[in-house]
Write the structure tokens for this entry.
Amino acid sequence: MALYEHVFLARQDISAQQVDALVEQYKGVIEANGGKVGRIENWGLKSLTYRIKKNRKAHYALMDIDAPAAAVQEMERQMRISEDVLRYMTIAVEKHEEGPSAMMQKRDRDDRPRRDGDRPERSFGDRDRGPRPDRGDREDRPRRPREDRV
């Protein structure tokens, strides 16, 4: 049997439990056709680079698969039919990676404490400067000469 890494994107308006149900459904398809699914990672709801079928975000999921090609083809056929799956990609690999994937390691890195201590984030949008002073009509103001005017 061949080894595969399979990633699919599900619509943004379904819940995380529905994404888990999709993963279990496709895991069942693989196992029914003589394969097995190893690591399963749910990467969560992420923004897309461009809209896909009117969706700006998608739920990402990764599956490590050890199955015959026919099992993977059947899973992909069912994903093409499903309206909940926006995109999928299956890649044949030599061996599966140990431990968490790069996406999960990135999430762990974001959870680390920052170097600058616990200093709060600065935002410049929370200051209220009050109303702008009235500038008057444009015609009433004197015109400054510019170098490009003659």
